[in-house]
Design goal:
Number of strands: 11
Strand content: 5-15%
Number of helices: 15
Largest sheet: 4 strands, mixed
Shape: globular
Distance between the termini: 27 Å
Order of helices and strands: HEEHHHHEHHHHHHHEEEEHHHEEEE
Helix content: 40-55%
C-alpha cells in the first residue's frame, strides 16, 4: 500500500467550478489540465456549452466502451483535432477517419505485430545501453534525457540510424522546440472557429512543423532510394514502405509516408519521453520501488525473453502511465443524435474522453492520486484497469505501437536505474502541464549518482 505519510505525486490545481467562456478559453490556452474543474474527477459525464456547440466529457466506463469499442464508426475522430495538429501530422493515421484510416491501418499494423517486436529488440537494446552511458551525474533535467533516449530508440528502430546521426539530431531538436509550443488539443477541439478567425498557432509552431516535415521528407526519400536499389535495412520504415494494402495492392506514396513518419515520431518519441520522465521522477520519490526496479535492470542481459521477468518495472511504468498519461484527452464526434445518461447528445457534438480524469477517477480507483504499483497485481487494481485505463486509447483505434511502448518503457527504466540512483529535489517539485504531451512546466530536475 502507498505510504500515507508521503505527499502524493504532483497534480495540477483545478479551476473554479464556474468561469466565463472567455476565462475558460484563456485557461485552456495556458494548460488544458488546470483549466478543468475538480468535479471531473468524480463525474460520470459533464456537459460543456460553447456559443457554437456542445461538448460532453465522458468518464462512465460503459459509455467509454460504447465510443471506443462497441461503435467506433459512430464516433469518428473529431475534425477539431486536425485544427491543432495537421500542420505537423498532415493526413496521418492519427487524424484520418473512415476508408482512408482503414487503408492506413492495413498497411501500418503488420509492422507492429508481436513478431516484429522481437525484430526491433536489438536496436532498442542498443539505444538503451547508449542512454545508460550518456546519463550524467549531478543535478539533471531528466525530461531532456528521456527525450534523447526515446528519440534514439525511434531513430534506430524506424530508420536504423542512431541519435548521433546528423539528420536525426536535426529532427530531434526541431521536435523539442515544437512540443513546447503546441498543445495536443488546440482550443478549436472545443470551439469550431469561423474561417476568418486565427487558429491560435504561434508562428514558431508553424515554422517548426515545416522544418520537421522537410527533414522527414529527406529521410523518406533516402529510404525509398535504398529500397529501389535493393540494399535497404530490414527496419520499421522499410517494412511499412514495402507493405501492400491487401485489398488494393498499393503501398504508401512518399507524401503519405511523410505523414505517417511524423506521427511515428510523435507517438514513438514524444509520448515515450513523457512517460519515462515521469516514471523516473516517481522512482526518485519512492526509493523502495526504485531499488526493486534497479535489481531487475541488473538482471537483464540483452535477451528479449528476459524482459518478461521485469514485472516490477512493468508495473511501475503502468502506474506512471496511469498518473501521467502522455495524451491527456481525446476527442470524438457524434455522427448522429445520441442519448447518454438520459441526456440528449446532438449530432456533431464533441465527445471528450480524458485518460487524465479517468485514470484518477475517485469512484473507479482506490487512492487515485497515489503512486502504488502493487495495485496492478491485485484483483481490485485489475478491475479498475479494465474499466478505466486507456493510456493508448482502446478498441479499433488503439495505438498500433502500444506493445512497442510497453517493451521500450520498462526496458529503459530498468536499465537506467541498474547503475544510477535518482533522487528528488525537495525545492523543485515538477508541475504537470499539457504541452504536446503531459510534461513538467519547468522540467523535472533530479539528482543522479552512480550506484
Amino acid at each position: 500500500m502507498p505510504d500515507g505519510t508521503r505527499q502524493p505525486p504532483p497534480k495540477p490545481p483545478a479551476r473554479a467550478d464556474r468561469v466565463s467562456f472567455w476565462r475558460y478559453a484563456r485557461l485552456f490556452r495556458a494548460d488544458i489540465l488546470s483549466a478543468q474543474p475538480a468535479r471531473l474527477y468524480r463525474a460520470w459525464m459533464a456537459e460543456f456549452r460553447t456559443p457554437f456547440f456542445r461538448s460532453f466529457l465522458v468518464n462512465q466506463p460503459d459509455l467509454v466502451t460504447t465510443v471506443l469499442k462497441a461503435r467506433p464508426r459512430d464516433f469518428p475522430k473529431s475534425d477539431r483535432i486536425g485544427e491543432g495538429l495537421r500542420p505537423l501530422l498532415g493526413n496521418s493515421v492519427f487524424l484520418t477517419n473512415g476508408a482512408t484510416w482503414e487503408r492506413q491501418r492495413r498497411i501500418i499494423d503488420p509492422a507492429f505485430e508481436g513478431g516484429r517486436l522481437r525484430d526491433t529488440w536489438p536496436a532498442m537494446w542498443a539505444a538503451t545501453e547508449a542512454a545508460r552511458t550518456r546519463l550524467p551525474e549531478g543535478t539533471v533535467e531528466i525530461e531532456e534525457q528521456a527525450s534523447h533516449a526515446a528519440a534514439d530508440v525511434i531513430f534506430r528502430t524506424l530508420f536504423s540510424i542512431p541519435i548521433e546521426d546528423e539528420m536525426a539530431q536535426a529532427v530531434f531538436h526541431e521536435f523539442r522546440a515544437y512540443q513546447r509550443s503546441q498543445p495536443i488539443l488546440n482550443l478549436a477541439a472545443f470551439v469550431p472557429l469561423p474561417r476568418g478567425l486565427p487558429r491560435f498557432f504561434r508562428r514558431d509552431t508553424r515554422r517548426a512543423a515545416r522544418r520537421i516535415r522537410a527533414l522527414i521528407t529527406e529521410l523518406v526519400d533516402r529510404r525509398m532510394a535504398r529500397i529501389e536499389a535493393g540494399d535497404a535495412p530490414d527496419d520499421l520504415a522499410t517494412k511499412i514502405m514495402t507493405t501492400r494494402d491487401p485489398e488494393t495492392g498499393e503501398t504508401f506514396s512518399t507524401a503519405e509516408m511523410v505523414d505517417q513518419v511524423a506521427i511515428f515520431f510523435l507517438a514513438g518519441h514524444e509520448t515515450s519521453a513523457s512517460a519515462l520522465g515521469w516514471a523516473l521522477y516517481l522512482m526518485a520519490t519512492h526509493p523502495e520501488w526504485q531499488d526493486k526496479v534497479a535489481e531487475e535492470g541488473r538482471a537483464l542481459n540483452g535477451d528479449f525473453a528476459e524482459l518478461g521477468r521485469a514485472r516490477v518495472a512493468r508495473d511501475v511504468f503502468r502506474e506512471a502511465l496511469r498518473l501521467y498519461p502522455p495524451v491527456p484527452m481525446m476527442v470524438r464526434q457524434a455522427r448522429c443524435p445520441e442519448r447518454f445518461r438520459d441526456r440528449a447528445v446532438p449530432k456533431a457534438a464533441q465527445i471528450v474522453l480524458s485518460p487524465w480524469h479517468l485514470h484518477r477517477h475517485e469512484r473507479l480507483w482506490h487512492d487515485p492520486d497515489g503512486f502504488d504499483p502493487a495495485r496492478w497485481q491485485s484483483e481490485a487494481g485489475r478491475a479498475s484497469a479494465r474499466d478505466a485505463y486507456i493510456p493508448f486509447s482502446a478498441g479499433a483505434r488503439v495505438c498500433p505501437g502500444a506493445g512497442f511502448a510497453m517493451v521500450e518503457g520498462p526496458l529503459l527504466l530498468a536499465r537506467l536505474l541498474a547503475d544510477h540512483r535518482v533522487a528528488a529535489l525537495p525545492d523543485r517539485v515538477p508541475e504537470p502541464v499539457a504541452h504536446l504531451t503531459v510534461r513538467a512546466r519547468a522540467g523535472i530536475h533530479l539528482r543522479i549518482e552512480r550506484r
